[in-house]
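INFO batch 0412 | record 1 of 1 | parsing
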Amino acid sequence: ANIEVSKMKVNASQTSVLLRNLTQGNLYSATVRASTAEGNGPAAHMSVRHSPAPYPVVPAPRLWLVLLVAATAVVLVTAFAATFYLRRKQAMTKQLGHLSVPVNGTDLGLMGGVKEALWIEVPHDTH
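INFO prediction complete | emitting tokens
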């Protein structure tokens, strides 16, 4: 039992037609004819069984590839930042290398590492 679902006319510039509300699992056939001033041309027949896959089928992005690209970007940014930091630190050390810096707490102060200071009051003549 063939049932005619739809008839349509389209312009010559149109290259595709989208049919909606087709039932999954049914067999559909289409006939296409060119219509000119001289009349209708020969018919082109086509049969299609509607599949459950939606049209158009777009492949899903591969998760492992996305994760690999993200991990590579993180590693490269981290390596660049570490290199920049270490070179800057090395340049600062090179600039300050000629200065003498106390090594530990005993080198600090005027009294050679004495932890307590001695306070001496000197009497002043107020005449």
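INFO post-check: Residues 18-52 form one domain.
INFO record closed
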